[in-house]
């Protein structure tokens, strides 16, 4: 399950008919992939041919928000957009937590601008008012009470827990913001 504040971002799409929503989501996904690839100077067509990108587009995963969020947090010159990026990236914390921590480290090192935390704090405050002060605890409880079959789904077959934990030892050897963020994403992909 997603953090409950995700509702704020997906709420408007509930009124779009499915026959329109799925193609719209795919087009939006392709545009997000292209924009994010362009921000990093990568080849968007090669990115779109990966199994992860195809799966995300076909299944309509919210990984698009995570990709958009990490790109905003990494590349934006606006502290407000970087803050929104952290919020979007945290929609799937199991994927983005390490990358977000690396980006927060560089946030302090490069910008020394903690205004970036105002957007996440505002979204958190709004979600606590909307869903109740204890929604984070109820969310964690729902994750812990999920059936064990979730951990053996098709998407998790590629993860090699606990053997993937060895890859954490490589992170200190990576130099530079980009390598550390990408390395942390790969480490979690191998582990979770």
Structure description:
- The mean pLDDT is 82.
- Helix 2 runs antiparallel to helix 4, helix 2 packs parallel to helix 5 and helix 7 packs antiparallel against helix 10.
- This protein is mostly helical and 192 residues long.
Which percent bin holds the helix content? 55-70%
Order of helices and strands: HHHHHHHHHH
> How would you state the average pLDDT, rounded?
82
Shape: globular
Radius of gyration: 17 Å
Biggest β-sheet, characterized? none
Write the layout of secondary structure elements.
Elements: H1 7-10, H2 18-40, H3 44-48, H4 51-59, H5 63-75, H6 79-89, H7 93-111, H8 118-131, H9 135-144, H10 177-191
Short description:
The chain is mostly helical and 192 residues long. It has ten helices and no strands. Helix 2 packs parallel to helix 5 and helix 7 packs antiparallel against helix 10.
List keywords for this structure.
10 helices; about 190 residues; single chain; mainly alpha
